[in-house]
Design goal:
Layout lengths: L3 H4 L4 E2 L9 H7 L5 E3 L9 E4 L4 H8 L3 H13 L5 E2 L10 E3 L20 E2 L3 E6 L2 E6 L2 E5 L2 E4 L5 H11 L4 E7 L3 H7 L9 H13 L4 E4 L5 E3 L4 E14 L2 E2 L5 E2 L2 E13 L4 E3 L6 H8 L3 H9 L4 E6 L8 E6 L6 H12 L5 E6 L7 H11 L6 E8 L12 E9 L15
Parallel strand pairs: 1-2, 3-18, 4-12, 20-21, 21-23
Antiparallel strand pairs: 2-3, 5-17, 6-9, 7-8, 7-11, 9-10, 10-17, 11-14, 12-13, 14-17, 15-16, 19-20, 22-23
Helix pairs in contact: 4-7, 4-9, 6-7, 9-10
């Protein structure tokens, strides 16, 4: 089990490739398909995987349908489980230790010329402080051989950091790259309360793999997935430095800020390690942003009408727009579903609601539903003065935005047309 499940059957590219502005271009020539690069000029002995964490591949690895995956993610959120702690001798991630620490020797890529430099964007930070454990994604700019500068968005880790800083404390952390897909999905979840994401990952792991999620403690006391590709001991220091610019999920360039500096103390990795070199604004980034949001949207919509599937669209960057599939029971269910969907994911600015005969992943089918089932003056919800997403570059200076919802469901009793034969 582990990250290598996602790599099964993925083509290996043995041609030399550079980390500097070449990996992304090479994947584009390969059609954006999954690939593992094995001959990396700046990181001999290490491989790098790109475009492997996508919705279809997750469903294939887990042997579930997209709708089932959403339901299982929701179940995991509601049923956290304690992981299984194992001895260091049983942990694949501890098979090798890099000496001395040298982040430059890892396959940390520089994907866009607009970026400040090399970034690890698929690595998760596991932090433990004052009895609370948090696991989440935070992009890290490679500053030098043993330091990165991390962008901490205003969520739980940021609050933990501010508390520690006020107390004059550093925070022991682990930086994990190439973990099992259940861990990667759990790390992308966000909760109003301080729910331990590793316990959600453990529930998902046991449900989808049929065995416990194994953790091992590093020497700094932080527990990490035992079968991850990389586990790095580090500390969030009290120092700050400039981070950014960076091409973010929307494909727009994020600004420069002063952000916390992370100092690395030890780096462990498996034999023949494969680094997850996610491309920001790419398909994996959208998967990690959108897939964990689908369960919360589906749960909210299901309270007002049966909801069968939710898809965070590619054009909406896996975050700002969704298509919601329902089975209307009463007149007005489509409009009710729109309001519920916005409550289920407050960062969205567009929702399209369709019947269960529409493939919500196919933009042609969705547009067809709009053009044949939607009337703009009666089937549209427009909300003004709403809290906008920080990822939306078009939001107002005060952080607000407007939102739109479109009900593209058939009126009850209307016979569906044979569109499959004509489109």
């Amino acid at each position: 089990m582990g990250f290598r499940d996602l790599l099964s059957g993925v083509p290996r590219d043995n041609k030399p490739v550079s980390l500097i502005l070449e990996m992304r271009d090479r994947t584009n020539t390969l059609g954006g398909n999954p690939v593992v690069f094995d001959d990396i000029a700046e990181a001999p002995g290490h491989s790098a995987a790109l475009n492997v964490l996508i919705r279809d591949r997750l469903c294939e690895v887990f042997d579930v349908s997209p709708g089932e995956l959403i339901d299982i993610l929701a179940w995991g959120m509601a049923n956290p489980t304690e992981p299984l702690m194992v001895h260091a001798s049983e942990a694949e991630v501890l098979e090798n230790q890099q000496k001395p620490v040298n982040l430059h020797a890892l396959p940390i890529p520089w994907h866009y010329a607009e970026d400040r430099g090399r970034y690890q964007s698929a690595s998760v930070i596991i932090a433990e402080y004052d009895g609370i454990r948090n696991m989440s994604y935070h992009r890290q700019l490679l500053r030098d051989a043993n330091h990165t500068v991390a962008r901490f968005v205003p969520r739980h880790l940021r609050m933990m950091y501010e508390t520690a800083k006020a107390n004059g404390d550093e925070i022991n952390i682990a930086v994990v790259n190439g973990a099992d897909a259940t861990v990667l999905l759990a790390a992308a979840m966000s909760f109003d309360e301080n729910l331990d994401e590793l316990s959600v990952a453990a529930a998902l792991h046991e449900r989808l793999h049929g065995e416990p999620l194994r953790l091992v403690r590093l020497t700094n006391g932080v527990a990490v997935p035992a079968d991850a590709e990389y586990a790095m001991e580090a500390r969030i220091t009290l120092d700050v430095d400039e981070e950014g610019p960076y091409v973010d999920i929307t494909g727009t360039v994020d600004e420069v800020r002063n952000e916390p500096v992370i100092e690395y103390d030890s780096i462990f990795h498996r034999n023949d390690p494969v680094f997850h070199a996610l491309i920001s604004a790419g398909v994996e980034h959208r998967t990690l942003m959108g897939t964990p949001r689908a369960p919360t949207i589906k749960a909210a919509v299901s309270e007002v009408v049966p909801c069968t599937d939710v898809y965070l669209t590619e054009g909406g960057c896996g975050w700002l727009s969704s298509v919601v599939q329902i089975k209307p029971q009463n007149d007005g269910d489509g409009i009710r579903a729109i309001h519920a969907a916005f409550n289920g994911h407050r960062s969205m600015k567009q929702v399209i609601v369709v019947d269960d005969d529409i493939d919500i992943t196919d933009p042609t089918r969705v547009e067809w539903a709009l053009m044949t089932r939607w009337q703009p003056d009666t089937d549209t919800v427009i909300l003004s003065g709403q809290k906008g997403s920080s990822l939306d570059p078009s939001r107002s200076e005060d952080g607000t935005t407007s939102k739109i919802g479109m009900d593209a469901t058939l009126s009850l009793g209307v016979v569906r047309g044979p569109y499959e034969s004509v489109l």
